[in-house]
Amino acid sequence: DGGITQSPKYLFRKEGQNVTLSCEQNLNHDAMYWYRQDPGQGLRLIYYSQIVNDFQKGDIAEGYSVSREKKESFPLTVTSAQKNPTAFYLCASSIRLALGDTQYFGPGTRLTVL
Amino acid sequence: ILNVEQSPQSLHVQEGDSTNFTCSFPSSNFYALHWYRWETAKSPEALFVMTLNGDEKKKGRISATLNTKEGYSYLYIKGSQPEDSATYLCAPGEGSGGGADGLTFGKGTHLIIQP
């Protein structure tokens, strides 16, 4: 089955620790995205990538970092500089980086920082 | 970032009834509008992508219309069923087409179908 996987589903970390969220896709999509959801808010774009070894900051990139070493993988690191990291994180991909292209979402990771 | 308004925030509908809700967005520099359905404990699922003023899309009992001149889209569900219970997200995008950083998600309409 083609799709997007995110792991883990739930993640708990102590304040001050960096944590990496996994996102893998086997859809052969060029573009990948990371979003964050907080209660009562719409999805907000953290980072996106158009192609391997290229990525761009979204609206709320501060305190996050990403890499795109392989087409299939786009891991997100939540660093200790992120002031309020507890949230639900969604990864998505699309065929191209284009506004008219459908984005396909993973199941999400809920991160709780204690 | 666009100012995207979805209304109502939540909606309770009796099974079998039809319903509709709205997505409002600035009409200037519009490029595309996406609708997604997000069921609890599942991934958001794409419903429609619309780009042209007057566009109408249909998928089973769900349809959507787009008015880019006045900046709104309606989503209609005919004969609601329990499986329609979900949060419906709209995401308009502005710009030239490339660069999906122009996509802004609304907060969603949470639909509950009561048997």
What does this structure look like?
The complex is a heterodimer of chains A (114) and B (115). By secondary structure, chain A is mostly beta strands. Chain A is 0% helix and 48% strand. Chain A contains no helices and eleven strands. Chain A starts with a strand and ends with a strand. Chain B is mostly beta strands and 115 residues long. Chain B is 0% helix and 52% strand. Chain B contains no helices and ten strands. Chain B is globular and about 45 Å long. The model of chain B has no long low-confidence stretch (mean pLDDT 92). Classes of the chains: A mainly beta (114), B mainly beta (115). The interface between A and B is medium-sized, with 28 and 30 residues.
Q: Judging from the principal axes of the Cα atoms, what is the shape of chain A?
A: globular
> What would the average pLDDT of chain A be, to the nearest integer?
94
Q: How many strands in all of chain B?
A: 10
Percent in helix of chain A = under 10%
Distance linking N and C termini of chain A: 36 Å
Q: Give the largest interface.
A: A-B, 28 and 30 residues
Rough outline of chain B: globular
State the major sheet of chain A: 7 strands, mixed
Q: What structural category arises from helix and sheet content of chain B? A: mainly beta
Helix content range of the residues of chain B, please? Answer: under 10%
Order of helices and strands of chain A: EEEEEEEEEEE
Looking at how many chains there are and whether they match, the oligomeric state comes to: heterodimer
β-sheet strand percentage of chain A: over 45%
How much β-strand is present in the residues of chain B? Answer: over 45%
Distance between the termini of chain B: 39 Å
- Spatial strand arrangement across the major sheet of chain B: 1-3-8-7-6
User: How would you spell out the order of helices and strands of chain B?
Assistant: EEEEEEEEEE
Strand tally of chain A, please?
11
Structural class of chain A: mainly beta
**How much is the radius of gyration of chain A in Å?**
13 Å
